[in-house]
Design goal:
alpha+beta; three-stranded antiparallel beta sheet; 7 strands; 30% strand; elongated
């Protein structure tokens, strides 16, 4: 380790004889200013958004457009999940039925990508959400139980009317 440190000091001393420290300082300053100027342009980027939909957590890839400084802030500082209620989204319930028993084994909530994109656009107001990737289906065990109870109560009402 000491040998590598001695070689690094020798290299620094050799470079210092040819390059002025003021030149290195101004080169660093010019790079920083160039980077700040470039951050004011509009860029497109892919960003994975963490979403909490009524307790179910998913990650959805999004293509967003915004100012470079805003996009850099999202990449560096936004680690929180965006909470969206299922009632704000358009969705369809897909149920898997056991062929032998005829009972519902699993139910999934298939979310409409356009409604999710609209909900994300409202919450990410300083960038434009251009498109979103594939949305994984959400397992919804309590939704199928609620649908069964509604269907049973509708059946009881229909029988009472007759």
């Amino acid at each position: 380790m000491r040998n590598a440190l001695d070689k690094l000091r020798a290299l620094f001393a050799w470079i210092q004889g040819y390059i002025s420290p003021v030149f290195v300082l101004l080169l660093c300053a010019s790079f920083i200013l160039w980077y700040i100027v470039k951050l004011e342009y509009t860029y497109n980027a892919k960003y994975d958004v963490s979403i909490d939909i009524d307790g179910e957590r998913i990650r959805v890839p999004c293509y967003i457009e915004g100012q470079g400084s805003t996009l850099l802030g999202y990449r560096a500082y936004m680690r929180k999940q965006i909470k969206i209620s299922l009632s704000e989204l358009k969705y369809a319930v897909e149920e898997k039925i056991d062929e032998q028993t005829g009972e519902v084994t699993e139910s999934y909530c298939i979310i409409d990508p356009q409604s999710l994109q609209s909900a994300l656009s409202v919450r990410l107001s300083d960038v434009n959400v251009l498109s979103i990737g594939s949305v994984p289906p959400l397992p919804m065990p309590e939704l199928s139980a609620a649908a069964d109870s509604v269907a049973r109560s509708d059946g009881k009402k229909a029988n009472a009317r007759r």
